[in-house]
Amino acid sequence: MSNTSRTALITGASAGIGAAFARHLAAEGYSLLLVARRQDRLTEIADELTRKHGVRCTVLAADLSDPSAPSQIMEYAQAHGIAIDVLINNAGLSGKSAFADTPWPKLAAEIQLMVTALTELCHRVVPGMQERGWGRIVNLSSLAAFSPPGASLLYTGIKSYVLGISQSLDMELKPQGIHVTALCPGFTRSEFHDTMGTRDAANKLPALLWQEADAVVREGWNAVMKGKPVCVPGVVNKVVASSVRPLPVSLQYHLGNRLNPFKEN
């Protein structure tokens, strides 16, 4: 089957890594189903990619913090005759306040978006991939999954879950022609920090720590195509990940506590 007869579903496709995945896969001839909250931005990207690459780009505005969103996405795909061969679970956010100070609905939305919806979409696309004997799934984890735990934020725990479940799914599904990769980028230049209100803090970090979204996507896509269950893009990030994991749990806890952004000095 050629790429022109395959379709990729990309969540969080309106900016950053999601938009970079859309551009990368369109250039390789994949049709696209682009999902995010911003209809206008999705339409703009779809028009750009259709003009440039001549691929079919379908857009659907949906908020994956809504528990009904995954089923709505798949019903939409079925109604339009779209079979999902590639799933890029990219949609995400990060909390900005301490756990105890955050209203439960906001925490629940964070979990729904990055844990439940991600897992449900995997579950919903796998049967079709099994029938066709081919599939590729990239789940956006983070370098944070390898880092010491940070107080107050769910983000580290969520991304650790994504790392673990991706490896488990890859073990189960690879014999059926389906590759699953946890893509674990570090600091990536995108609109994420503007959306989360962390741009000022991000700008203080050394340039050496940053990657462009296109570079992250290239490494991630190459990894899933080669059947690598984990991809940490960038030399600096690889060094960080390999350095932290061997540390004793007690030392990781100590480092995480010292780096706690909510700790009073």
Short key terms for the protein model shown above:
NAD(P)-bd_dom_sf, 7-stranded parallel β-sheet, 265 residues, two-stranded parallel sheet, SDR family oxidoreductase, single chain, Rossmann fold, SDR_fam, 9 strands, alpha/beta, 10 helices, globular
Radius of gyration: 18 Å
Uncertain spans: none
Sheet/helix structural class:
alpha/beta
Specify the overall morphology: globular
- How helical, in percent, are the residues? 40-55%
Assigned CATH class: Alpha Beta
* Strand residues, percent: 15-25%
Q: What is the strand tally?
A: 9
| CATH topology descriptor | Rossmann fold
* Biggest β-sheet: strands ordered side by side in the sheet: 3-2-1-4-5-6-9
- What is the level-2 CATH architecture name? 3-Layer(aba) Sandwich
Most strands sheet: 7 strands, parallel
Distance between the termini: 59 Å
If helices are DSSP runs of H or I spanning 4 or more residues, what is the number of helices?
10
Name of the CATH superfamily:
NAD(P)-binding Rossmann-like Domain
Estimate nothing, just give the exact number of structural domains: 1
Mean pLDDT across every amino acid position: 88
Order of helices and strands: EHEHEHEHEHEEHHEHEHH
